[in-house]
Amino acid sequence: MPRKQALICLVAVTAVALAGCSSKKAGSSSEDGVTSTTIHLGAVSPQSGASASFGDVTTGIKAYFDYTNAAGGINGRKIDFTVLDDAYDPSKTVPQTEKLVTQDKVFAITGNVGTKTSQAVYQRLNTEKVPSIMASGDPTMVSPILPYIFEGLAPLDADINEQIAYVKATYPGKKVGFLAENNDSATNELSLLTPAFGSLLVKQSTFLLTDPDLSSQIVALKNAGAQVIIFNGVPKYLALAVSEARGQNWQVPFISNNASVDSSFLSTAGAQADGVVTVTGFKTDPADPEVVKANDILKQYAPSITPGPLSQEGLAVGQIVVAALKAAGKDLTRSSFLSALNATNISSGVFIGQATMSPTKHNPYGCEQALQVKSGVLAPIGDVTCGS
Amino acid sequence: MRSVLHGHPRLVGLVISALVTWLLNEVLFPTPLNGYLVVLFAYVGGVVVARLSRGDHRYAALGPLVPLVFLAQNSIGVTELTQILILAIAALGLDLITGWTGQLNLAQGIFIGLGAYVTAILASKHGWPILLTLPLAGLVAAAAGLLLGVLALRFDGVYLAVLTSAVALAGPVLLLHYKSITNGVNGIIVNQPQPPGAFADWLDTDQWGYYVTVVMAIIAVCISWNLLSGRIGRALRALRDSPIAAKGIGVDLTRYKVLAFAVGSFWAGLAGGLYAMTIGFVSADSFGLFYSIQFLTIIVVGGLSTISGAFVGAVVIYELSTNVQTIGFATTVNGVALSIPQAAVYAILLILVVIFAPKGIIGIFSDKSDWSRLTQRLRGGHNRSTDVVQAQADRPPIVRLDAPEDPHPAITSY
User: Fold this and answer.
1) I want to staple B298 with a disulfide (CB 3.0 to 4.6 A). Which of A53, B42, B91, B386 is the partner?
2) Tens digits of per-residue pLDDT, B263-288?
3) A328 with A185, same domain?
4) Is the ipTM of this complex over 0.90?
């Protein structure tokens, strides 16, 4: 008896499977997702699982869309934004993205979050001619340029290039030491530092998050004759490194990655933090009017999260999408939206400098700014540098 | 009316709860009512009516699925079905190792990864036709599974779980380490194959991938069925239920344990090859320990030691993990909206399945279901303490090697 029932069950599953397939290929047309009152947009991001915090990006995007809708929408239309969960698993990203394109018939994909998950779908989205903005920070999806694919986050390498440019300009000919947590990000950074500095890169020293202090690493860097230290890690270890060096009366300049110079670092390191330099592509001063505005929007329209870098960058993606939708005009089609995206030129937001895109540049960012700690506060140092 | 219902006692609850679901969804509350509440109301309605008409209320739980089957055409996409079938093929492989042979294996995910990498490397770096790489992906994984099987001979129960989880943890690290072959953290992009000449007119790439997967799934089911319904299947179950007795009646333990690991890993490798073909992107960190545990969940929820359980479990787990949504309540506590986050909803649903259907969803269909015993217990019809012992004895042994006898021998169910 159980065998018979199990068989029936299997047949039922097969029947469902075939039912799903009997529908003809539903290609996307350029009118998909737009009605006289709504624009249907979608994105797939991790909402569950170990990487669920990446979902803050789409939460930020949604907050900006809600803010736009509350302010009257776009040329008489409101944005309807569907976010589906892929738990940061590419084998779920593909079906979920397909669901948005073929069943929900979204007009565009605005903010698929994650590198490996976006890698799995960007080529098929281009083939399906769906305008898509990825939120991954991975530059490979926009080089070479595909006509329908754009990138919405700052490229991961931009900060490192700014660190290199700052050290070369400020400390020409000085010997460089690299102090980093032992992980993929450090390996990636080293692959950019090595060709940039050549023999001037005299020592690379790594630590683990379980190390009680960094005295041996600092001594090793000092003995190798390093005159500048480039740091890649977390706030606590930057504070340890700075206090260890200053304790040895070694006034070496520190050039840190962005994430390490936060309020916890500033309060832990205290006066010793002064002089530490970091780089950023986004505004960090909480008193900056653009940051205040962004945080206000997030607090009102995304009360479930605490405003942070990911949600602020998401907000910037929303800003770019809304600007392009407005510029595409009342007669919105995918081709007019693409032209508008390719002509993106937004002068102010939480990003530094301008957000610009063109048919040969599908990533809106490129401007970076060095910041230095002065009396416990981060202050811009030097000019904003833009360009590749 | 009552006599009409009596004619088909089993269907009463099912039909009523399906009707209630449909009514609540389509007519009374088109959008505002939470989906889970609909299912709950439908189930309660189905049970009440079935009880009143002295029908079998167990099937009421299936009622809410009926409208879904009719909606499936619009709500389930080809790529989604493809991924579900791929999960099911790999779960079938794990069921062979864990369900039938009783060897707890937490490394199924990494064998899928191995197969995926074989297909990705051969197809994108060496230009092989992707269909040719599929059997090879299975064979490479089978070879690795054979090695694991030989190792597994020395371990049992929790020790085997530790061994296989170590393999699951080490696998992605190894794949990342050999950057020159695997492309490291960047992963490998696989160009999805176009349907060959004759099919190109009426199938797109995704549909071609789907039909290839369907054919592979049918092959996997047929071979597994043949394997398990004959001498080998009996030997595997004997090995699971009592290795000592099995040895006593002349079952070669070494041979069958290794065989189970090799065949189970072959299906994982094949599923991996299909994964690479249909997803088009392979990266090592997709195949970690949590990915492996997902397959254990699939076979337990679907029904251990059943072929159909692997497929039903794959559908349920995939749909739950992608479609479960936060249950929000229209109240706030100290300004924070009260809600059950989706991960917790997923966990609660899994716990409910394990409590109410310890033999999986397929188990609900079996005549002496744990479901009826549990509801009997709730009505006070049974002595509680003997029920617990009975319920424990009914669970298919995974790590228990000294089970005196299986009251529901798996021989009867596929």
Assistant:
1) B91
2) 999 999 999 999 999 998 998 888 98
3) no
4) no
